[in-house]
């Protein structure tokens, strides 16, 4: 590929008539001359490889994956490479031989083949190293061989046109052979080799196809096409998704961020302590000043460590993505320059045709390279997003596992869920906007340089116009924020009211208050929609100002340029290149404030995360734990629990809640802790668990600990998983535990036995069932020490006695273990070995039951108060009078909250039947089914009926009117562009265009008409969306309110509130926004198609296939994307639920030392979420890359057709066509994405209509009945005759055979 292979001796450059013998020779100084292309082709490929090659070698040396087999592909590449080396060696040898023969040769005939010989040798060496390091497809060599194809192609064309084969056959044959070899190498570089022979990573069941894809497939994301096709053929499921790579797994990502966070936080703490110490030594203003300074330093250092940790784990990916974006912007600004050259070519009748084709190809290549680099930037940063989301979520989860009791008092579970579901996504999604803080400024500078070159000083007026629009947008933004805040206040008020109604629906229905509460909700809803309507209209004005800013700037600039200076005339190059540059400038103007606003919002979320991660944690050294079991030292009766001079507080800043506790508990002792409410009984157990901050003293516990909290904590899993709690299943021991805890009757009534799924927070269990399940979990553990915080509180008296005798008491399952029982059930105290009475956070007295009675101290006073009915403690009342039915069904789902009638409604079974029931099998796990109350997920595409439902809610006339307005504004846009092309083609007389004033006035009028039409169409969409939201919300509210009470017992309140919050918000905001975007992009595509067709009718041959491909991509993507979004939403809900569940049961998890298994479960949930998120983001890139390529093909087709029809076209019309086609590249993908987003949002309409098909109550009022009939009774009477009731139709009778009568004036 040297010049000796491409030119005859003494002819360093191409001569005339290379491409067309009839065309004149191009000027020597032309940038696009053939001589320049040949020179670039000689030196660019070697420079490319020698610059990138060493860097690439270093990279693959550090990221080796194991060596590849010596495949046929590798052997072919090596053979072709050595053939090229031999060919270049022969070229050098021939040149040296000719010099020895006395035939003078130009220096480049020796230098060029020598350089190419060294470069090709280096390329062959890279092929060998790639096989050793497991590289299956090389992007560096792909680019090298692609560049190498340019020079042989030009030289072969030159030599073929010169027809000098007889004069130098060696050189001609060498040129053709070199071309064949290089093209073959390029084709082989488009293929991928096999997987590594001994991979460093273990093989996966369903590996991601990216690793084995070729470089073109990676660049265009074609490797995801198989998944997209499967999603089009049938709904995707978890089995269709790829296995997660180690680099994207939660374990790897969280460990990296956790190490960086710990390291930076420790460094910040050391710096703060050092600064505080130095400040304390230098200041002489007292202790308060130094403490204040240290506090401020701690507050200021919260953000820094987390920011540095995130930067350290993500900087390489972020910088590589930023580099791709910068390269993409280089090609972005190359396109206007090439358009300028192309319009100059169109305006020059004497220009050769090859130059037009070459510019068209260069425009296509520049646009394609811009697309590829921009999509690589998006891909890398999107992958970084999901990685950081997993890492930060894992960091938050690990913080949840370590939160102290004091920190939990200042943080609610909703706050933690908001961190995971709102703040973490908002922070990670903002990564894309970080480059928007500086890159638009570069765009603006480059754009003004372009405008100055085109228009001279007239370009300064563009600055004035842009600055004049800023106050308008600032005012609109300020007013819109005010109305948005008002809307949010009304939304919060409505959410609180609907939540209150649904959580107390039984009371509302019993009193017949449905109508009154619905009126209140609808009144608040009306105020909310009013604020939303005003905010939406203001947003429409703001959008129109951005949309027409390009037109306003163009109008002012063109007017100043043509009217102020006489010698300036409008031409196609100035008009349409200016419009292209102004479009880039408009994007920069919109992108910069959007990025600033997003970064400000993300900073709020970042501060919330940093504050949470800096909360106080449980001190792992607060309790000295010994692994030895006390049961091994029964003879010695060693102390299992020892507290010496213990003083404890809920947090480091709060006052102590326990004072000078001295307590020793020997092995096997049953210690009862009693005292009035607020005496510190639960705090004592928390101190023994290490949950409290230890002010002074020491705590020691020998052996594993099991803990039963006062408020039962149940996981959303099966019964057996709750009881075993990450331990191996022992069926015999499980049976004994369930029987002792009085759970066998309940398990026997469950549909799948112990494999029955328990709903979120145990919503399908009663309060007593949850408490007994919590106790069974502790008993199953076989621990040495049991801390029982009032486990009998929610149990019926006889059930509580059974549990105490069979589990806790001297003859129970735990008789040989150490038990500390906090209780208000004073009747069990005689069976305790030792009693501790607490008062005001201190031990009032302790001893055996008889000793304390003889002392007549605090315990006797407590017993006396318990015997006084009017002065009974609230907790004691619940203990002694609760009447929870031990045989309650799993379907009742109603925790016992107070005293009930002591009336036996269901006869007991005989002992034989009961014995048979208790020996029932554990149940079939296949019958367990999903958890109760699980929300449904739709499959496949959204039905057309849902679109019709929304259209009817908007109103058919309003929909047709909106379409008419969009059509009118697009017609005005087309006429404005066409009028500009006519203006550019006007002849100049004396350096001026005679009709410039008329052209300017009409151009401005058409632009104003378009702006008015755009504003009216957007406002119509907003008003139609508000109308539809109001109607759909009223339907939903009416459907739910008319549902029977059984519906509310079966349906979790969270599902209902989700419809009234998230789904309603999507219908309010997202659907009108996506519909507006879809209509704008769709009509814009129609305009571009019309423009290209009118200007170059030959382009129809390209437009029709492109439309078919566009439709195909759209159909494939929409079906797959909708299902992936549903799967991602479902998987993310698991993550949020698990975080909330762990937050509520953190003390239990730490007491059981189960943090490791819970972290593993969180990693599993995050990995499942990552498995869905990764294919979805790749599918987005697949769509964007391929649709932008289709748009680039349309630009190429318009340019080529313009070259072919050059004699019949004006420069203005060509500029109109090509500049319009340049805008379609991103419009295509945004049109499909808007359609996809709209379909995903229509799912909310589908979910809001779900309850329209559920059973409804009878009408609240009958129109045929008068309000008060004349024979209204004066005395009331209630009579029940053989009454039977069930909670739901599918459940057994809960009340059977009840008959009684209540006469007038009686109270039952």
UniProtKB/TrEMBL annotation:
PANTHER family per record: ATP-BINDING CASSETTE SUB-FAMILY C, ATP-BINDING CASSETTE SUB-FAMILY C MEMBER 6
Enzyme Commission identifier(s): 7.6.2.3
Organism whose genome encodes this protein: Phyllostomus discolor (pale spear-nosed bat)
Matches recorded under CDD domains: ABC_6TM_MRP1_2_3_6_D1_like, ABC_6TM_MRP1_2_3_6_D2_like, ABCC_MRP_domain1
Cellular location(s): Basal cell membrane; Basolateral cell membrane
Family as reported in the entry's similarity comment: Belongs to the ABC transporter superfamily. ABCC family. Conjugate transporter (TC 3.A.1.208) subfamily.
This protein's name: ATP-binding cassette sub-family C member 6
GO cellular component, one term: basolateral plasma membrane
One family name in Pfam for this protein: ABC_tran
Enzyme class label: translocase
InterPro entries: AAA+_ATPase (IPR003593), ABC1_TM_dom (IPR011527), ABC1_TM_sf (IPR036640), ABC_transporter-like_ATP-bd (IPR003439), ABC_transporter-like_CS (IPR017871), ABC_transporter_C-like (IPR050173), P-loop_NTPase (IPR027417), TMD0_ABC (IPR056227)
Biased composition annotated in UniProt, kind: Low complexity: 878-896
Gene Ontology BP terms: phosphate ion homeostasis
Biased composition (Basic and acidic residues): 897-912
Disordered: annotated segments: 866-935
Keywords recorded for this protein, A-Z: ATP-binding, Glycoprotein, Membrane, Nucleotide-binding, Phosphoprotein, Repeat, Translocase, Transmembrane, Transmembrane helix, Transport
Membrane-related topology note: Multi-pass membrane protein
Classification via PROSITE patterns: ABC_TM1F, ABC_TRANSPORTER_1, ABC_TRANSPORTER_2
Job description of the protein: Mediates the release of nucleoside triphosphates, predominantly ATP, into the circulation, where it is rapidly converted into AMP and the mineralization inhibitor inorganic pyrophosphate (PPi) by the ecto-enzyme ectonucleotide pyrophosphatase phosphodiesterase 1 (ENPP1), therefore playing a role in PPi homeostasis.
Residue ranges occupied by any ABC transporter domain in the UniProt entry: 641-865
Bilayer-crossing regions: 40-59, 79-97, 109-129, 141-161, 173-192, 317-334, 354-373, 431-452, 458-476, 537-564, 1000-1026, 1078-1108
């Amino acid at each position: 590929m040297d010049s000796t292979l491409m030119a005859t001796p003494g002819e360093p450059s191409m001569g005339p008539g290379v491409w067309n013998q009839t065309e004149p020779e191009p000027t020597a100084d032309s940038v696009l001359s053939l001589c320049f292309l040949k020179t670039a082709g000689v030196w660019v490929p070697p420079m490319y490889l020698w610059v990138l090659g060493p860097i690439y070698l270093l990279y693959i040396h550090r990221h080796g994956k194991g060596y590849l087999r010596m495949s046929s592909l590798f052997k072919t590449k090596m053979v072709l490479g050595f053939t090229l080396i031999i060919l270049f060696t022969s070229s050098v040898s021939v040149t040296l031989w000719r010099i020895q023969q006395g035939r003078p040769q130009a220096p480049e005939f020796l230098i060029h083949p020598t350089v190419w010989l060294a470069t090709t040798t280096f390329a062959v060496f890279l092929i060998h190293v790639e096989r050793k390091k497991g590289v299956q497809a090389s992007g560096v060599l792909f680019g090298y061989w692609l560049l190498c194809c340019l020079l042989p192609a030009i030289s072969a064309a030159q030599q073929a046109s010169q027809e000098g084969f007889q004069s130098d056959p060696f050189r001609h044959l060498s040129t053709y052979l070199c071309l064949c070899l290089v093209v073959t190498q390029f084709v082989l570089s488009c293929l991928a080799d096999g997987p590594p022979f001994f991979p460093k990573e273990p093989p996966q069941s369903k590996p991601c196809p990216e690793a084995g894809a070729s470089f073109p497939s990676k660049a265009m994301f074609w490797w995801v096409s198989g998944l997209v096709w499967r999603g089009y053929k049938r709904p995707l499921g978890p089995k269709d998704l790829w296995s997660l790579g180690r680099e994207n797994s939660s374990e790897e990502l969280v460990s990296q961020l956790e190490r960086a966070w710990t390291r930076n936080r420790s460094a910040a703490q050391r710096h703060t302590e050092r600064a505080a110490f130095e400040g304390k030594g230098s200041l002489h203003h007292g202790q308060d000043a130094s403490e204040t300074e240290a506090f401020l330093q701690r507050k200021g250092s919260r953000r820094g460590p987390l920011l540095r940790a995130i930067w350290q784990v993500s900087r390489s990916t972020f910088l590589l993505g930023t580099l791709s974006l910068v390269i993409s912007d280089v090609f972005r600004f190359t396109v206007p320059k090439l358009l300028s050259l192309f319009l100059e070519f169109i305006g020059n009748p004497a220009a050769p045709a090859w130059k037009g084709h070459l510019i068209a190809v260069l425009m296509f290549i520049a646009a394609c390279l811009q697309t590829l680099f921009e999509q690589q930037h998006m891909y890398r940063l999107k992958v970084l997003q999901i990685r950081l989301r997993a890492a930060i979520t894992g960091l938050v989860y690990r913080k949840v596992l370590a939160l102290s009791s004091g920190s939990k008092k200042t943080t609610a579970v909703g706050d933690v869920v908001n961190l995971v579901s709102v703040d973490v996504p908002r922070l990670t999604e903002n990564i894309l906007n970080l480059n928007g803080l500086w890159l638009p400024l570069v765009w603006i500078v480059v754009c003004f340089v372009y405008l100055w070159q085109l228009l001279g000083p007239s370009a300064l007026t563009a600055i004035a116009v842009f600055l004049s629009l800023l106050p308008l947008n600032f005012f609109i933004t300020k007013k819109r924020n005010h109305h948005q805040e008002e809307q949010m206040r009304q939304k919060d008020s409505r959410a609180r009211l609907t939540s209150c109604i649904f959580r107390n629906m039984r009371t509302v229905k019993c009193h017949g208050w449905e109508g009154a509460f619905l009126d209140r909700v609808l009144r608040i809803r009306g105020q909310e929609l009013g604020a939303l309507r005003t905010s939406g209209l203001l947003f429409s004005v703001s959008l129109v100002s951005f949309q027409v800013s390009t037109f306003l700037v163009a109008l002012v600039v063109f007017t100043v340029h043509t009217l102020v200076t006489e010698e300036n005339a409008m031409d196609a190059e100035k008009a349409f290149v200016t419009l292209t540059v102004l479009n880039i400038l408009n994007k920069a103007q919109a992108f910069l404030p959007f990025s600033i606003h997003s970064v400000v919002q993300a900073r709020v979320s970042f501060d919330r995360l940093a504050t949470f991660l800096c909360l106080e944690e449980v001190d792992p050294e607060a309790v000295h734990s010994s692994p030895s079991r006390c049961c091994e030292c029964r003879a010695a009766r060693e102390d299992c629990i020892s507290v010496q001079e213990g003083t404890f507080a809920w947090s480091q800043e709060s006052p102590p809640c326990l004072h000078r506790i001295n307590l020793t508990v020997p092995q096997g002792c049953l210690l009862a802790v009693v005292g009035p409410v607020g005496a510190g009984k639960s705090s004592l157990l928390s101190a023994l668990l290490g949950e409290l901050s230890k002010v002074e003293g020491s705590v020691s516990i020998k052996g594993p600990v099991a803990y039963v909290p006062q408020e039962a904590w149940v996981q959303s899993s099966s019964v057996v998983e709750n009881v075993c709690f990450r331990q191996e299943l022992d069926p015999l021991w499980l049976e004994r535990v369930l029987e002792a805890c009085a759970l066998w009757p309940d398990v026997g009534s469950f549909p799948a036995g112990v494999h029955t799924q328990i709903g979120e927070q145990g919503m399908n269990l009663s309060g007593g069932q949850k408490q007994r399940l919590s106790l069974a979990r502790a008993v199953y553990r076989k621990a040495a020490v049991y801390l029982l915080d009032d486990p009998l509180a929610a149990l019926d008296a006889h059930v509580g006695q059974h549990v105490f005798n069979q589990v806790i008491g001297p003859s129970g399952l735990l008789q040989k273990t150490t038990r500390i029982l906090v209780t208000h059930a004073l009747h069990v105290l005689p069976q305790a070995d030792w009693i501790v009475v607490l008062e005001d956070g201190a031990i009032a007295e302790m001893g055996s039951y008889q000793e304390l009675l003889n002392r007549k101290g605090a315990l006797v006073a407590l017993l006396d108060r318990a015997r006084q009915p009017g002065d009974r403690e609230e907790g004691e009342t619940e203990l002694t009078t609760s009447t929870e039915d031990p045989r309650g069904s799993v379907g009742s789902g109603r925790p016992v909250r107070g005293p009930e009638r002591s009336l036996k409604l269901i006869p007991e079974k005989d002992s034989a039947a009961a014995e048979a029931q208790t020996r029932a099998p554990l149940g079939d796990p296949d019958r367990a089914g999903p958890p109760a109350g699980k929300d449904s997920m739709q499959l496949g595409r959204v039905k057309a009926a849902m679109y019709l439902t929304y259209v009817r809610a908007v109103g058919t006339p309003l929909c047709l009117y909106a379409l008419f307005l969009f059509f009118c504004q697009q017609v005005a846009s087309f006429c404005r562009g066409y009028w500009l092309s006519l203006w550019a083609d006007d002849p100049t007389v004396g350096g001026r265009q005679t009709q410039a004033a008329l052209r300017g006035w009409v151009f401005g009028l058409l632009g104003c008409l378009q702006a008015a039409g755009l504003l009216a169409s957007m406002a119509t969409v907003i008003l139609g969306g508000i109308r539809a939201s109001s109607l759909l919300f009223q339907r939903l509210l009416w459907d739910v309110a008319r549902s029977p009470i059984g519906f509310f017992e079966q349906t979790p309140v969270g599902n209902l509130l989700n419809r009234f919050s998230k789904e309603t918000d999507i219908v309010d905001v997202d659907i009108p926004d996506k519909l507006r975007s879809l209509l704008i992009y769709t009509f814009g595509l129609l305009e571009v198609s019309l423009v290209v067709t009118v200007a170059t009718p030959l382009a129809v041959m390209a437009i029709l296939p492109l439309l078919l491909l566009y439709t195909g991509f759209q159909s494939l993507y929409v079906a797959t994307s909708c299902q992936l979004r549903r799967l991602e939403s479902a998987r993310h809900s698991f993550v949020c639920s698990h975080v909330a569940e762990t937050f509520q049961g953190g003390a239990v998890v730490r007491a059981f030392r189960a943090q490791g298994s819970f972290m593993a479960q969180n990693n599993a949930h995050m990995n499942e979420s990552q498995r869905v998120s990764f294919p979805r983001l790749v599918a987005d890139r697949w769509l964007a890359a391929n649709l932008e390529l289709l748009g680039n093909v349309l630009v190429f087709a318009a340019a080529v057709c313009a070259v072919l029809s050059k004699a019949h076209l004006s420069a203005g019309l060509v500029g109109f066509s090509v500049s319009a086609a340049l805008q379609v590249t991103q419009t295509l993908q945004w049109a499909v994405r808007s359609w996809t987003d709209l379909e995903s949002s229509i799912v909310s309409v589908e979910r809001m209509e779900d309850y329209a098909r559920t059973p409804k109550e009878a009408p609240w009022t009958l129109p045929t009945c008068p309000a008060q009939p004349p024979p209204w009774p004066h005395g009331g009477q209630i009579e029940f005759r053989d009454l039977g009731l069930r909670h739901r139709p599918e459940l057994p009778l809960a009340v059977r055979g009840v008959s009684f009568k209540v006469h007038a004036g009686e109270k039952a």
